[in-house]
Amino acid sequence: MADSLEERAYAEAERAGRNRGRGGGGGGGDGGGMKREVRVSKTLSRLLRHQINNAGIQIDSSGYAELDKVLAWQPLRSLQVTFEDVLTVVRNNEKQRFSMKPNPTTNPSEDATSTDPTHWLIRANQGHSIAIASEALMKPITLEEGNVPAVAVHGTYFAFWPLIVQSGGLKPMGRNHVHLATGVPGSDAQVVSGMRRDAELLVYVDVAASLADGAMKWWISENGVVLTEGNEDGLVPTKYFKEVVGRSTDVGVLFRDGQHLADLPEGIKGIVPPGKGRGGGRSGGGRGRRGRGRGGRA
């Protein structure tokens, strides 16, 4: 039952995301007064994470695509995105979502000053729903390497928490990985990505215990996001929840050391944040914006 609810919740989120993507303004799916840099970043993310295959653009084994082909994609052409626009987004994006490198075929001298798009490759560092090998994008986290992060925390919302509990843990929900941060953005200046800044619940995960059990593989991306595909069922089970607490609202301790201690307090409103799409989702069938019994996206 939980799985079908979760699948329905994600399907609704996907429909909402596609509907936004059909809006005006050159395919960015964002209207009105959104800053150009943000629109370019969102449109690049949509292509490089989710639609690169549908766009007919080849990527290499590490997820890199030729920048000139990327700039020729219709939604980016409609925005009249230039090489300089892309460079600005790559350099300034606070979550360091993208990487660029010289194209060895067309730029064998690796001229870092070239402004010719044919001389460059670009990729998204994580967040893909397209099939791509984790090894090509990220570095493995292992006990042997001693690179297990001291903190691995997943941010979610009150509206989605009941479904996470029903499902038995965290799922990638249409992406390739569950995303975690190595700290809480805003309170740790070192943390630039891995969690939305408006997350309401913090799910601390015991990465070391799951590795010791051989339960799942873990990875860290170029921009410091901790990721996992989950176990054989695509799940980060609740047994590895070290602690679950509210971020700004005191809801008590909901989980500790894999034990379910409490539900959300009765007064908590599970309101799905607007416009989350892939990053947040909404409840099944568009319901469940209020109340504790519905919700659906970790």
From TrEMBL:
Q: Where is the signal peptide?
A: none
Bias-annotated ranges (Gly residues): 22-32, 276-286
**UniProt superkingdom:** Eukaryota
InterPro entries listed in its UniProt record = Ptrans_KptA/Tpt1, RNA_2'-PTrans_C, RNA_2'-PTrans_N
Q: Where is the composition biased (Basic and acidic residues)?
A: 1-17
Basic residues: bias regions: 287-298
Concerning Gene3D superfamilies, the annotation shows: 3.20.170.30, RNA 2'-phosphotransferase, Tpt1/KptA family, N-terminal domain (1.10.10.970)
* The EC number(s) this enzyme carries: 2.7.1.160
Which keywords does the record carry?
NAD, Transferase
Judged by the first EC level, this protein's enzyme class is: transferase
Q: Which GO terms describe its molecular function?
A: tRNA 2'-phosphotransferase activity
- What spans are recorded as compositionally biased (Polar residues)? 102-116
Q: Which GO terms describe its biological process?
A: tRNA splicing, via endonucleolytic cleavage and ligation
Transferase listed as a keyword: yes
The chain's coiled-coil residues are none
Q: Which reaction does it catalyse?
A: 2'-phospho-[ligated tRNA] + NAD(+) = mature tRNA + ADP-alpha-D-ribose 1'',2''-cyclic phosphate + nicotinamide
Region named Disordered: 1-35, 95-116, 266-298
Write out the similarity annotation: Belongs to the KptA/TPT1 family.
General function of this protein? Catalyzes the last step of tRNA splicing, the transfer of the splice junction 2'-phosphate from ligated tRNA to NAD to produce ADP-ribose 1''-2'' cyclic phosphate.
Name by which UniProt lists this protein: 2'-phosphotransferase
